Sequence to fold (336 residues):
Amino acid sequence: MKILGIETSCDECSAAVVENGKRILSNVVATQVELHKPYYGVVPEIASRLHTQWIAEVTGNALSEADITIDEIDGIAVTNRPGLIGSLLVGVSFAKGLAYSRGLPFVGIDHIRAHLYAPHMEHELSYPYLGVLVSGGHTVICEVLGFDDIKVLGTTIDDAIGEAFDKVAKHYGMGYPGGVMVDRLAQQGSSTAFSFPDPSLHKGDHVYDVSYSGLKTAVINQADQFWDGKSEKSLENIAASFQHAAVEILMKRIRLALRASGHRQVAAGGGVAANSLLRRELMTLDAEVVFPSLKLCTDNGAMIAGIGYHYLLHNQCDDLSMNASPRVQAFKRGYP
Ligand code: KG4
Ligand code: ZN
Fold:
């Protein structure tokens, strides 16, 4: 089965064709990074307007790169939650229109689940395993017990890890997109120049939870006292020390969860899984660790088509009443 996947939940306009949930025939990602750069963040109105202008061409390119026509597509999968509502609506409306006009089955996909599915596209994973989802909107440590069976162990109690990277980068004018710039600057800095606390709760049900808003505030308060913008390496040192703290906060919980659960495999996904330090640290775990290649870490249509295949194969389709939602429906603690 060849599935067309469409992803417009934030600022990447993407379409892809994937065969049988794994074989990527094309994965076109039109990034809006340069257009949001002047604002140091995604401007929702600009994002949705660009999606409306780009989506048809991006989809056409995905089909031609896969060397097929729409007639050879067996179904359509589209991100319909969570994300920026204006951006989501563009992809959802486009997918519905295309599916209706072609008489194709279609399904709305949870973006977070798709990030967790991404490692399956390049690796053999067997259930159960420990899942780590780290993106601009989410930070989740979970047990993946089966395809549709996820037990959340810990989440952020406030900001997501990627959000902290983006906010620290914005505060110090490190550039945009924040996570990539912090990662790059940190390579030249000292991770021990500053010592930042782990401000998360550590008790009872909350041992696996994290707080990145607390870390971000600590970084800004503490580093601001020494920041004159002129000292050699000051920006690099802030980036390296912050990145070290952000990764260690997460790794502490992952090590704990791995020990408690006894799982032998760990799979990480989401934009922050592209972080070089996190990837290095994950590799030190006493388990088989897999993460997607960089293009499958950040937002992309291939992971949507990949996971969509499994729903469509079992006729778990949506009808035209399917809608977009900005909210997270799964991935609260205790889910499902
Ligand atoms: O998964 P994603 O593309 O979109 C969401 O679903 O949120 O993740 C975007 C996030 C942003 O916060 C971005 O700064 C972060 O991933 N990111 C990184 C790196 N590359 C992207 N964070 C740290 N290091 C990186 N190399
Ligand atoms: Zn994402």
